Every structure is written in structure tokens, then in C-alpha cells.
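Course assignment 3, question 2. Fill in each field.
Student: A.L.
Task: Predict the tertiary structure for the chain below.
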Amino acid sequence: MKEMLEGVKAIMRLSKDKHDFWEKMDIAYPKLNAAILLLPFDDLPRPRKPK
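Answer field:
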């Protein structure tokens, strides 16, 4: 987790503005389909998807 924070801080320093920051963040830390990744534990209750 600390490594990710250091990476975000470095991207902040290198960015010209907030749009440039978010473009670099999307490249460095891409989102994973916005799906909830669940482990296959069938006997545990599953969380609901956010709306």
C-alpha cells in the first residue's frame, strides 16, 4: 500500500494539471471493470453490488 501511495505522489509531482494527473493515473493504475472481485467461497454471504 505504501508503494502505491508513493507512486501517486510521484504522479502528482510530474503532472501539469489535474487532467494530466488523471490521465497518468489511468495509465499507471487502471481500473478493473468496476466489478467486485469475489473469491469463490460459496458458504459465505456475498455483498451486494453498489448502485
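Instructor remarks: The two ends are 27 Å apart (CA to CA). The mean pLDDT is 79.
Grade: pending
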